[in-house]
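ok posting inputs for the fe (ii) ion job
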Amino acid sequence: MLTLGVESSAHTFGIGIVDDGKILANEKSMYKIGTTGMIPKKVAEFHVENSASVLERALARAGVKASEIGGIAYTRGPGIGSCLQVGQTVAKTLAQRLGIPIVPVNHGIGHIEIGRLQSGLKDPIVLYVSGGNSQILKLSKGKKRHYNVLGETFDIGIGNMLDNFARGAGLDPAWGSTVEKAAMGGKYLPMPYTVKGMDFSFTGLLTHSIKQIKGHRIRDICYSIQETSFSMLCEALERALLVSNSNEICVCGGVAQNTRLKAMLSMIAQDHGAKIGYAANEFNADNGAMIAFVGERMLLAGIHSKIIDCDIEQRYRIDQAMVV
Ligand code: FE2
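and the output
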């Protein structure tokens, strides 16, 4: 079934097209944050300006006409309200115009399910690390399945923490990926470390790191913030592996692209004889294909919504979303 997915939860406006689980197109436009970060109104305006051209590119890449699309999926949440609204409006307009079913999708489920598909892992412990989310999850058993949250951040997502630090340090662009580059060759500075069971917290680390900007090399702070926060994730993940008796780890979300985090997680996997897998970087970044992929499964299972009931939910928790 040709399914078109619309993603717009944050900086990326993406449209993906899948057919029977095969990705035919994954086009996107990404808001440039510079040194100021994301201003919701401006990001939403960017999405409005770019939605038509991204749609055109996706259809051209897939080699299909809009009239051939059989279903529409869109990101219901979690995310930035004004940005989610743009994707929701595009999706509802397309569904109305084409007279086809529409289904809302949880953004995190998109990340995880594309990660499971591409890693080939069957029943992994999931480490979902992105700007707005940091969680350790496991899929429930039985007919009505959902992801159980084994551990999560008490405050902000790890990506948000790294982006915030980048902004405070004047790095351009103010992304976690800029922190990763700046951390090369750094030396370790003591940092606050907060893990409670399988939960963790990043705001203390962020506040402390920003205070270190006067008096220390940015390179050393970048190195230390990464080593500390990634160690926190590793400790919690290791505990989850032992508690759940699992031997598979799937890592997904934007921060899963970080090479230092990958190296540290590989060591954990090796120590426990566990397999570790990721989606390709293109699909760990926000994208429309993951929404189309999950949406197609839901539509094929007969799950869809009336257009009038299609809403957005900024705090749409992953454990509230059914997994088909
Ligand atoms: Fe994301």
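notes: The chain has ten helices and twelve strands. The mean pLDDT is 97.
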